[in-house]
Amino acid sequence: MSSNDSSEVIRQCLQVLESITSDSSVPRNIRRSVNEIMDILNNESEPLFLRAASSISILEDISNDPNLPLHTRTLIWNLSSQLETIPVDE
Question: What's the family (predicted)?
Fold first, then answer.
């Protein structure tokens, strides 16, 4: 996967994360965590694979929250899958 492909994955993930933060049915603590993920992904001083790994870790924690709406849980699983496509060797 080229660096442009990885950047595109990040861009798409940020769009989905933005939609989660604007969804009023999502609990506040989840939206806070999603904002934290957005900050991590936008932090270009860290390597891309490290930003992806940190984000995946937080997403896994969020996905286990019992108050998470089902449609949001599906989005979070999809985000994790997308971020897992980013190679470590970049």
Answer: Belongs to the UPF0147 family.
